[in-house]
Protein 1
Amino acid sequence: MKVEQISVFLENKSGRLAEVAEILARSGINIRALSLADTADFGILRLIVKETEKAKQVLKEGGFTVGKTEVIAVEVSDRPGGLAGILNVLNGGGINVEYMYAFVQKSGNNAIIIFRIDGLEKAIDVLQKAGIRILKGEEVYSL
Amino acid sequence: MIWNKEMECMGRKNMQEIQSQRLKKIVSYVYRNCPLYKAKFDSSGVKPSDVKGIKDVQKLPFTVKDDMRDSYPFGLFSSPVGEVKEIHVSSGTTGNPTVVGYTKKDLKLWSEVMARSLCCAGAEPGDRIQIAYGYGLFTGGLGFHYGALEMGLTIIPASSGQTKRQLKLMTDFKPRILGCTPSYALYMADEAREIGLDPRESSWEIGIFGAEPWSDSMRKEIEATWNMLATDVYGLSEIIGPGVAQECRHKDGLHIWSDVFYPEVVNPETGRAAGEGEAGELVITTLTKSGIPLIRYRTRDNVSITHEKCRCGRTSPRISKIRGRTDDMIVVRGINVFPSQIEHVLLAIEGTQPHYQLIVDRKAGEMDELEILVEVEEKVFSDEVRKLQVLEEKIRKEIASVLSISAKVKLVEPRTIERSEGKAKRVIDRRKL
């Protein structure tokens, strides 16, 4: 049910994001999903890739600070109110979302939302009880 | 093991007798052979015959770093240049570099004091030592080398840098002793983990770290990381290089070899003697050197001194760990800031390894600004922006409370901060003062 996500510390200097992309490209690692959070001084890039360990290793060798966390990927129907429904379920279960990002699948009518939550087990439980589909790691990696 | 029991464990009265004899001799030697010293003595109205005992050292004029720079290259030599067997040069950030020359006798002295220092740290003849200080013009590598040779260690002269090779040498040859800068020791630990080595399993049992100021909290970090005893070695090229003073296993001050390097602690403002245990600037007179003997050399290192006998049995006076160098010290908005204070704060905040740099700037018509760059290590990194901002804020608040100064804290990527000879550049002063 859980998906591995790597995060990379980036200084706000030109070319750093390109450097990450370049390193991954050279190692033949395809990015499944990504989001970038930034402040005035620094940014945090979050990535979902198929080869998590390899990506982590090559980025570290490239001199980056890299972390690994677990997130969940939830399927939501691609229509107005789709996201609101899920957030209501989480809110109702007393679950706090640290951050989230979404992407739309190439095929099909559904969007996928990645949630970073403290207390993943509980969130999975709450979502499943509400009949919301949570994607398995392999499903996300092979999107 | 104590290398030179006679000199290291001598009673104070006998020691003063030896120091007195040696001082008289060296003062008349420099007066006769070094025009710069003759001029210095003459202009302060002291004659060599005024020096009757070690206490009279206080009558003599100080020697400062600028004397060395201004007399570049040979002006401070007391021996004929032809008798000098080895020359070391330290890079000068402003003006001329500092040059030091060793006669054959000086090299013998260097071997002796480094042998004492290595033994003091806990080395035993037959041990292997990995010397990861730079070899070359820098005194670190060769100083350790001569001492290790003198006391009968097996030397792995790795020099500085090439971290993967250092780790391989350690793994393959299993040296018990490591000599390098303290920041390089921590740097190597990161690298070790990356290639899948557990630093706690290393063969190094004793580290002899120096060439840059470091704090007790950094010591704890190194000891925990490498599972070794981390001792402090003190030295400066002007005096001899490494081997001026060294901690024993009790880590309760650095034993200074006062039969050859006579220490005083003075108030840096007034030049007057500080009391026992009182902080001040370390001033050293080299009692037996022949190439470039220095009289009352102001080291700019802030220490205190004690003459109490150490638990290890040595009676040599002990200087405290360097509390900062006055040339490292920066005055920001009127407040003295030592990089070691910042380091302390960073270490106290859980997990933050001390890779940091202070940048001071002053824009036209504005106040000084202090910015602290801190490298984000994996241990403190989070994928959540909020947590990193909390970290920044925590560092900022701690610094404000310790230094009474507000600073901007900026998290930067690992290895952003320049390291040379494994020595991190701690302060960048961009003010045009």
Protein 2
Amino acid sequence: MSTAQVGAKRLEPAAIAGVMSREVANFRTFWKATTFSSVLEPVIYLLAFGLGLGSTLVKNVDGLSYVEFVGTGMVATAVIFSSALPAMFGTFIKERFQRTYDAILAAPVDVEELVTAEALWIAIRAGFYGCFPLVVAMLFGLSPAWGMLTVPFFCFFTAFGFASFGIAVAASVPKIDSFNYVTTLIITPLFLVAGTFFPINQLPQGFQIAANFNPLYQLVELVRAASFGFEAVDSLRFAALIGFALVMWRLAVSRMTTRLVD
Amino acid sequence: MDAAIKLRGVVKAFGSITAVDGLDLEVPQGICLGLLGPNGAGKSTTMRLLTGQAIADSGELRVLEYELPREAKKARAEMGVVPQLDNLDVDVTVEDNLAVYARLYRVKDVRAAVDEALDLARLRDRRREAVDKLSGGMRRRLLLARGLVHNPRLVLLDEPTVGLDPQIRTEMWTLIGGLRSRGATILMSTHYIEEAERLADEVAVMHHGKIISRGRPADLIAEHAGRETAEVYGPPDRLAEVRAEAEAEGLPVRPAGPAIAIVGSEASTNGVIPEDAIRRAATLEDVFVLLTGEEAA
């Protein structure tokens, strides 16, 4: 059997594509369930918050109707829940319980390529599913805009960061139950104080400053900008997301190297 | 011709435990070497060192023509690994499991490689079924075929039949035998003596992280155990008595489950071997237990 030359280069596309092809093969067995919940979840949220809060308590937020406000904000919710959590659980299960990584790392793939491929795949998926809330919100009255075509890219970089974060967490915890600390202390606050359900500018100033360091808040602002008009500051927000993705990626590679190579 | 594997003075410690402790091991091309040792002897760590999944603290490692760990990735491309534990993707079809690994190993014609592996595993008619629909024996054959999908020059088999029922074990032995005849070099770790005796051209006995003896099974038996072993059954008091007499005569005695085995019994002349002893040909197991002091599986 002839095999292609394996170079000594880092991040070989063939290795990354190989690892991703494993993910795709597995995803084909459960894509219906993922798609189902990606469609239904924003519908439920929009019904609950949009009709509940929006029609009774809140009419207008920052000049937007509550459906416009939540519909765009929920993109961030969809992104974090389809990136950080699958990365945490998926990585831990593949490493510890299924021993998948033992088999992959016995092939000409190194840890850096493995981590990059896993994060890339999750980011592509989340980039796609992250747009579902926008589409659903359109059924509830959000007007389409050309700028929304940029949303998948914002979602992709944010999800790459959070997927890498999830991989780094999975590589650092002793057991799967430790994820409870991470979801309670990090993920839940990040997703609540992202300006999804209520605007940040009504919070005490300390929270407002802190929110700027929340990548999900930056994503929410970018999605609203994409829907209702960009400003100069948005390029800074985008740069911050790319920075977040890069830092988390390197962290994930280093944590996983410690975990997987004795 | 260069050796397929060449290890010199390899040390690997985990905290205070030195798993591999000055290991020297050379595996010539084209042979099947059985790496025999009790649990904890360092066999699995040795396997991980060879794939670069563990990095040695010191020593030299060469696999095929590559120097580890620097060129581990190149070495892995030409090496097949069959793990001890089944780590197939259970929801995915048989052929997709193979195709993924054909891609990971950079095989150019993925479809041809998958077909060939399906034939090897005798799973051509189950190719579109999910792995969790397969029987235990089929899964094992698939696991083996997955490690061979790129037709590697060197194959590492890590305890290939551990925990399998006898029928599946025999089936695996047939497949591994077939692999030998294709000319691949095989390094097989095992703690089943019978497995090593049947499949290995040479056996290396590993204990406390180093090789303590090495040779063809028949030579090792002749050297360490002689021709014949006498097994004596009976109550503990009697066994202790027989043991003391035999040892006084200079014959090595080892525990053998409920019995004791007097090794090299053909050399005894003055009747220390009881009448009711069962005399049998010496085996590799006698050698193993004498050398490692541990009963084999």
